[in-house]
Amino acid sequence: MPFSQRLPRLLSVNTLLWVLAFLTVSTLMLPLLYLVIRGWDSRATLLEVLARPSSLFTLWRTISLTVAVTAASTAIAVPLAWFTLRCDIPLRKLWIILTPMPLVIPSYIGAYLYVSALGPYGLLQKSLEQAFGLERLPSIYGFWGATVTLTLLSYPYTLLAIRGTLLRLDPAQEEAARSLGSDAWSSFWRVTWPLLRPSLGVGGLLVALYALRDFGAVAIMRYDTFTSVIYNQYSSFNRSQASILALVLVVLTLFFIFIEAKTHRKADFFQNEGGGARQPQLIDLGIWRWPASLFCGAVITAALLLPAAVLGYWLVRGLLAQEAISPLWSLTWNSVQASGMAMLFTVVFALPIAILAVRQKNWLSHLFERLTYSAYALPGVVVALALIFFGINYIPWFYQTLAMLVLGYVILFLPQAVGTIRSTLLQIHPNLEDAARNLQSSPGQVICRITLPLLRPGIVSGGILVFLSAMKELPATLLLSPLGYQTLATSVWSSVIEAYFAAAAAPALLIMLTSSLPLALLLFFEHRKLSK
Amino acid sequence: MIRKFSTLLAGISILAIAGCNTAPPASNETGSADNAAATAPVATEKTDTLVVYSGRSDKLVDPLIKKFEKEKGIKVTVKYGSTPEIAATILEEGEKSPADVFFAQDPGGLGAIAKAGLLAPLSDETLEKVQPQFRADDKQWVGVAGRTRVVAYNTDKIKPESLPADIADFTKPEWKGRIGWAPANASFHAMVTAMRIEWGEERTLNWVKGIHANKPVVYKRNGPAVEGVANGEVDVAFVNNYYLYRYLKEHGEKFKARNHFLTGGGPGSMLMVAGAGHLKNGKNTANAQTFIDYLVSKDAQEYFTKETSEYPVVDGVAPPKGAPTLDKLNIAKINLSDLSDVEGTTKLLQKAGVIE
User: Could you tell me if B173 lies within 8 Å of chain A, comparing CB atoms?
Assistant: First the structure.
C-alpha cells in the first residue's frame, strides 16, 4: 500500500507541497525582514537620498545597464541556441559543449581579465606597441565595458533556458512548417520563436537580476550602479543606510519580475505528444553555415578563451617570478562540498514551488513563485548579514556551521532552480499525470513516477546552475562559512585584493575547471541521448 | 533507476520538512561534523585557542598566524573578509560574537566596533610597547603596522624632482587628466579624514573639488591605480606605499612606477595604521592579550617591514627597504582615534560629487 494512501487527509501530498513551499518562501523573506529592521532607523533619510540628483542618476545608470545586458544576452543566446541545436553547422558538437561555459567565470575575475587584456594599456596594447608602436587603445571603461563584460558572462543563463526548451520541443512542428514551404528563417520566426517566449523570460530575468546585483564587474569597469552605493555605505560603517538602500534594490527587482510575468501569462506551452525529445532534422543553412559557425567561435573566443588565456598568462608569469603557489586540494574540496550541498537542497526546496506554480495555478502559488526572486538581486553581503543577525540571535547552534553557508546559497540561488524547473514543467502535458491518476495512482505516485522523471532534465540543469553560482559566490562565502573554512573563491579574493595576481590565477582556474566538468557532462549526455 | 531516484528525492523532502524552515537536518549533521573536523582542536583544548576576525586578507596575515601558533602553542582560527564586511559582521553579532580579536586594516573599522562598546580596553603594558602616535587614546585598540600615503609616478613621464612636496598642489590645472585616485577606498577616506582634521572642512572640500575638476581617473583600489601609473594611463596616483613592492616583485625592475614620498608635511603623507582590538566578550581573554602583544613584538614587526613593506610601530625596528624613516617624512601628528569619523568623510565626498 503506498504510503500516501494510508494517511489520506492528514498529510496528503498536496498539503505537503504547500507546507514546504510556504516554509521555503518564509525563509526567503528573512533578508527582507532584516533590511526593514535594520533600515528602520534610517527611514527618514531614504527620501533625502532618493531626492539627490546623483542618486537618481545612479538609478538610471543601473536600469539602463540592466536593460542593455538583458537585450544583448538575448541577442547572443538565441542565435547560438538555434545554430547549435537546429542547424547543420561545422563544429556543431564542440560549440554545443563550449557555448554555455562562460558561466564558470566569476564576474569579479572576468572583468579584471578583460581590463588586463583589452584595457587601454593592456596586453593587447603592449603587443601592438611592440609591433606597430600603438600607444594606447580606446577606453573600455564605463557603460559599454560593463555591458559587454556582463553580457559575455551572463548570456549562458538565457542560452541554457532556451536550450532546455528546444531540447524538449517536438521538432515535428518546425519540420512541418518547413515541409509546407517555409524556409529556415520564417519557420524559426513563426514556429520556434513564439514557443521560446517563456524560456526567454526566465533566462532574461536571471540575466537582468545578475546585472542588477553584480558588484565585481561594474566596479572594475568603473561604472557605478546601485550596488556601489550600498557598498559605500558599508564602507563608512553605516549599516542602517545600506539596508534602506538595499530595499530600493528589492523594489527594482520586483519591477523586473513584473515585466517577466508578462512573457508567460497568456498561453499554454505544452505539447500534445508526451515525449518530443528526439534529434531533429538539422536545417541545411547552405553557405550561411560558415558564418554561423564563425559566430559561435567568436563568442567562445571572447567569452571563454580570452579570459582563460589571460589567467594562464598570470599563472606562468607568477611561476617564473617564483611566487609561492600553495596546494589547493582542501580548498577545492571545500568549494565542491558546499556548492554540492547547495545544489541538492536548492533543488529540493525549488520543486514544490515550481510544481505548484504550474500545476495548481492560483494567486498563492503564483505569489510564492514570484517571491522567490525578491532577494535574488540583493548583493551577497546583504543576505549574509541577514543570516548572521537571525542566526546568532535565534538559532545559535546553527551559527557558523556549514549548514548556514548552504542555507545562504539556497536563499541566494533558489530562483535559478525554480525558473529552470518551472519552464520544463510548463512543457509537460498534464494529460500524462491525469492518465496516471485515472489508473488509480495516488498523488504521491504521480509525482514520483511521472512528474519527477519527466522533470529530470530541468532538475539537473537547475541544480548545475546553482552549483556554478555557489562556486563563484564571494561575500556570502566569506561571512557565512564556518570559522577557518576557506574555498577557492575566498582564496581568489585574498590574492586579488592584495594584487597578487599569479597567486589568484591558480584557484581561479580551478573554479573554472571544477565548474566546467559537471556542465560539460550534462551537455554531453543530453546531446548523446538525443543522438541515439 | 527512476524509482530509486524518486525515493531518494522523496526521502530528502521528508528530511527537509522535519528540518522545518531553518535547515534540513541532514545538512546540519554533515555541517557540524565537518566544522568539528576543521576546527577540531578548538573543541577539545579550550584554553589553547583563539578566534581572530581579520579585515586584512589571509595572503598577508596567514604566515604570521602560523608563526604565532608555532611559538605560543595556541591554535588560531581566523575569519577573513574586507574590513567593512567584518566590522558589519561583528556589529550584527554584537555581544554574542565568537571573535576574540579584530585585526582591522584601518582605524575606521575599529572605531565603529569601539563605538558600539564591544571592545575591552588594552593594558597600559601593551600600549606602551608602541610609539605614542600609534595608540588609540581611549585605549580601545592599538596600531600594529603603518603605511604612508604616497604619490606613485610613472618613471617615463615624470622626473621625481618635478613633483610637488605637498598634496595640496595637485589641484593646479597643469595636472588635468594626469591623476589617478581611488575615492571609494578606505585608505583614501582615512587621508581625507586627516585633511578635515588638519585643514578643516572647507579647505578639504575645496581640495577634493579641485582634484575632481582635474578629471582624475577613478580606480576601485590602490593596486589597479599603481598599475595604471606603470602602464601610463595616468602620470601619478594617490596610493599607499606598499603596493608598489608587490608589483616590482612580480614584474621586476622594468615596472614603470615608483613611489614619491610627500616630504612637505601635511595629510598627503599621512601615516595610516592597521590595528587590533580585543573583543570584550571573547572567550579566550588571555590568548587575545598574548596575540596582540605578539603583533607588536619585534618578530612580528620585522615580518611587517620585510614581507608587507609596512612601517614598524615600535622602536628599534628599521623601516621597509626603500622607504625613508618617519622623521624625514615630516608627518603631521594626528590623533588616530579621530580618524574613525569615516561617516563625515563620506558625506564630504558625496557633497563634492566624487562618490555616491
Answer: no
